[in-house]
Amino acid sequence: xxxxxxxxxxxxLVAGTCFAEIGHDVVCVDNDPRKIExxxxxxxxxxxxxxxxxxxxxxxxGRLNFTADLADALNGAHAAFIAVGTPPRPTDGHADMKYxxxxxxxxxEKATGDLVVVNKSTVPVGTGDEVEQILLKAHRPFKLxxxxxxxxxxxxxxxxxxxxxxxxxxxxxNDWAKKIVSAIYEVDGLAGANIVHTSRRSAELIKYAANxxxxxxxxxxNEIADLCEAVGGxxxxxxxxxxxDSRIGSKFLNAGPGYGGSCFPKDTLALSKTARDHRVQxxxxxxxxQVNDNRKRAMALRVLDACxxxxxxxxxxxxxxxxKADTDDMRxxxxxxxIQALQDFGATVRAYDPEAMxxxxxxxxxxxxxxxxxxxxxxxxxxxxxxEWDQFKTIDLKQLKKQVAAPLVxxxxxxxxxxxxxxxGFEYWCIGRTGSTTSLQxxxxxx
Length: 447
Ligand code: UGA
Fold this sequence. Notes:
The chain is an alpha/beta fold.
């Protein structure tokens, strides 16, 4: 099949590259000519593990091409995927649809033959109808249909998620369009794709409902972590015991500093706004949004507690800035409010992230960015883990100890090897458990 993907950001670039990998002939389009030129040279503008190699491989075979010229990209295409951003409108939090509609208008002018327009961007329910109206208004002498095909890729493991999807959702009432989009996914390269056919509106809702449910699951376990701290439980054991119930499932039960990223915060907000516009109140989701927002800054208070009630004049080393591991994405990262609060409380912040420092430097002005975790920890009164990068889990603790001014680790992701951290002489604080662990407590517990 010949496929055009419009928008070469996280979603469009991963989807386009993977479509090429499973055998389709793909042209990725972006209105930023510099991005297109860089992609043609094999330079991938985002950090996504494995993506550069896959882009290079498929570009070399000729199955993956890049252009800033939409008319050129649409020539002979069977399907055009819209994968542009739908950021929250600053005024009211509704998803801003201007980019999607602008692309729809451009497609309506530049398409040259029968074309299925597939919406991959996360869009409020009813957007497919709007896009269809835009296309029909152009009165072109060929067939144009709109399908909703939401994406469920997680940053950091996006290629794997694409190649081994739990499901592929195809929302359309048009048999011809449905057949074309199904044929794109029903190929040998896509392991066990479970295709869900539904209406366009249901498909649009599936995407939001899935993200909102996952955000709710994380928020739930974060509140249970708070309760563990108050009553003397251990969230790691509680989450394990709860998650082994197959009706619940153990994924997305890692307590932490609150969810972030470009999707959950924006999509929960957009879903609650859509619901209110239809006189439905999603109280659970509205509460999730509020609890999660409050949680991020509250994390800084835990650092204060661990530091004896004040961080004024202290140096705090922050390990990890990205909203999660294996990405350079800083959008809505918990690191932002946590660091800002620590600075408000008078701390000096030194930070290190393996991939996100370039993006973080655009946000923070008074943070010292360091070349590695050891240099960030130099002279620190506390080391905080904010992103669960593998390299922090296996860090050389002896060397870390030599750097710090005070041996205190505050693990806001519960990923550090507690026994080893304590054995190395650190006081260890984590999420969802009362107080800290020190080597003295460890030896008492062992007796
Ligand atoms: C999320 C969804 O997981 C994808 O299915 C969806 O396609 C994507 O949004 C999207 O709508 O485009 P992503 O934002 O890349 O993917 O990241 P997640 O892995 O879902 O993590 C989101 C946030 O939740 C991160 O801040 C992460 O640290 C946090 N999280 C996740 C937890 O705090 N605990 C967990 O157990 C899991």
